[in-house]
Specification:
415 residues; 13 helices
Length: 415
């Protein structure tokens, strides 16, 4: 046997109760219940245990139980000397019980120390402790030498068998954990491969198509600008320019979707600043930035994009302020606009944008993640969604903002 085998602890999986079947758990609890009942019966069945003696006996049994629980915890942490010390205390309690006339309780303690020491300690410490416990049991019992030999040998072998059984169970538990981890990694790898394939297909079809449209629309714009000015020419030019702008936005969104599929998305704060720069919006990030779940990050990006699209559509010329707040367990996005032209009547503050998503779809998407999306008008003396006025966490609390009617979108998702 190598030196490592003598000094090596049983694995934590072997020392814990993980992996035990219900039958094994029931059997272990039954054995503990029988031992406790035996200790109580052997202690209180004697006539001289009454009054203060009974109180002392109960306190002693409680201390013994606490030491047993502490021994379980310290061995689970692989703390050698505290574990050995607790066994020494328990063997001292067995010696006191033997001298006090509680032979059955002393026997139970001696045997329990021998078995648990062999089961839960490194062999270099388990053998001496077990031999001391068995020696104490033998010295204080006056049975025939054959009975004592068979009993001590059985206890020694029983403790070692429990040790081997626990190690086998711990090994099985580790193998099961490794297999589950391998399956999860395999499933994640397959999902990444599928996402990469979808990204390639989207790039080969949609991105190339949009790029080709941009080239043709730009050529058409240049050709139309060469025609003599007139109402018809100006109208066609306006439509071509708008189509080119939509194609450019669609290509940008496609590239973002491809980056998300490949797991290459830019940090959320950086993305919001790039998005806000197109509209001259202000961006503020509060809290400690951190990586979010892909679903949460994508939802925040889509809501910000949709909110800015709605500002361009319904309140052109408005000032926009974006605030991203990283909380302990969630992330909050506030998008507020002020000073634009009056919005058209829109029940619930929800209108679909040209992107085809709409804030109603974003609200449903947030709720699927366990979050919320609140929208509403703001004006003089009126608080926005989430019971916060312009002067609060939305980052738009200026005197001008409190005098101008605007619109607010607030998203909160767990992260």
């Amino acid at each position: 046997m190598t030196t490592d085998a003598w000094t090596k602890w049983p694995s934590r999986e072997a020392l814990s109760r993980e992996g035990l079947t219900d039958a094994r758990r029931w059997l272990a609890r039954s054995v503990r219940a029988v031992l406790l009942a035996g200790l109580l019966w052997s202690t209180f069945s004697q006539r001289h245990v009454a009054g203060w003696a009974a109180v002392v006996a109960v306190a002693t049994l409680g201390a013994v139980g606490f030491c047993g629980w502490a021994f379980y915890r310290t061995t689970l942490r692989h703390d050698l000397w505290p574990s050995v010390g607790l066994l020494v205390v328990l063997m001292g309690a067995a010696l006191v019980a033997q001298d006090s006339g509680f032979a059955i309780a002393a026997t139970v303690l001696w045997c329990a120390c021998a078995i648990t020491g062999m089961e839960r300690l490194p062999l270099a410490a388990a053998l001496p402790v077990t031999l001391v416990a068995l020696g104490g049991y033998t010295a204080l019992n006056h049975d025939a030498w054959l009975n004592l030999t068979l009993t001590t040998g059985g206890l020694l072998l029983g403790g070692y068998a429990l040790r081997l059984d626990a190690e086998a169970r711990g090994t099985a538990q580790r193998l099961l954990t490794q297999e589950r981890a391998a399956r999860a990694a395999e499933a994640e790898s397959a999902a990444l491969a599928e996402r990469a394939r979808i990204a390639r297909d989207i790039h080969d079809v949609l991105a190339h198509s949009l790029s080709a449209q941009l080239v043709h629309l730009e050529a058409a714009r240049l050709r139309i600008e060469q025609e003599p000015p007139g109402p018809f020419r100006d109208q066609i030019l306006e439509r071509v320019v708008a189509a080119r702008s939509m194609a450019r936005e669609g290509l940008a969104e496609t590239r973002q979707a491809l980056s998300a599929l490949r797991g290459e998305m830019a940090p959320l704060g950086e993305y919001l600043r790039e998005l806000a720069a197109l509209d001259g919006a202000e961006v503020e990030v509060a809290g400690e930035p951190r990586a979010l779940r892909a679903e949460a990050s994508q939802t925040v990006r889509r809501v910000a994009q949709e909110a800015l699209t709605n500002v361009r559509k319904h309140a052109p010329g408005a000032r926009v302020r974006i605030r991203l707040t990283y909380g302990t367990d969630d992330v909050t996005l506030d998008v507020r606009d002020y000073g634009g032209r009056e919005r058209e009547a829109d029940p619930g503050g929800l209108r679909a944008s040209g992107s085809g998503y709409g804030l109603l779809g974003m609200r449903e998407r947030a709720e699927l993640l366990g979050g919320t999306l609140e929208t509403g008008h703001e004006g003089p003396g009126k608080e926005g969604p989430g019971k916060e006025g312009p002067g609060k966490s939305g980052g738009s609390g200026t005197s001008g903002g409190s005098e101008e009617r605007g619109f607010s979108v607030r998203l909160r998702v767990p992260a």
